[in-house]
Structure prediction request, 195 residues.
Amino acid sequence: MEDLPFITPPQAVASILSETEQMNFGMASEPLVGALLCTLAASKPGGRFLELGTGTGVATAWLLSGMDLHSTLVSVDIDEKAQNVAARALGHDPRLQLVNSGAIEYLATQPAESFDLVFADALPGKYEGLADALAVVRPGGFWVGDDLLPQPNWPEGHAAKVPNLLEQLAQNADFSVLPMVWATGVVLAVKRRIS
Ligand SMILES: C[S@@+](CC[C@H](N)C(=O)[O-])C[C@H]1O[C@@H](n2cnc3c(N)ncnc32)[C@H](O)[C@@H]1O
Prediction:
């Protein structure tokens, strides 16, 4: 079975990737991860979605492409320059709100169980502030973590944090967890309604 020949990136991705390359931003999501996000977004009509780490907007474009017209997406990043690429390519979409903020600071302002999907694509919301990111997921909703396989931009000592993250998720009875040794290394967690 092949996968990439059957995956078509949203139209905006080409111009985003061209600007991404020009500015030497090396952390853009790859198509397999984008297609996963698009598919998950399509499962939540009228959904409310959150991306932590807009970057230049590659995954933002994939999420938007899966969402219906009644869904909304908030995408948060501290790097205004990278986020401006997303604003130029996707800012016309009324379903999208780009927020220039730290992820932890943004999460602190959000009510519990207020998002149908959280794409944790920055270190905060994944390695720091994991509990805050998990708290905003609605029952039946997804928390998706990416870049769990070795990445060229990982800081020194980062690799040791991955098993720790997976252990924390595996021990969290509120979530059903699927670590995937696939693409850039993804973990998919679904919040369960326990009671
Ligand atoms: C892996 S990149 C995001 C890639 C993007 N989601 C995509 O699909 O192309 C991680 C992003 O997290 C952002 N970031 C780093 N620290 C952050 C923080 N404390 N709060 C919010 N964003 C942060 C970086 O500026 C960077 O753009």
Observations:
- The CA atoms of residues 53 and 77 lie 5 Å apart.
- The chain has a mean pLDDT of 97.
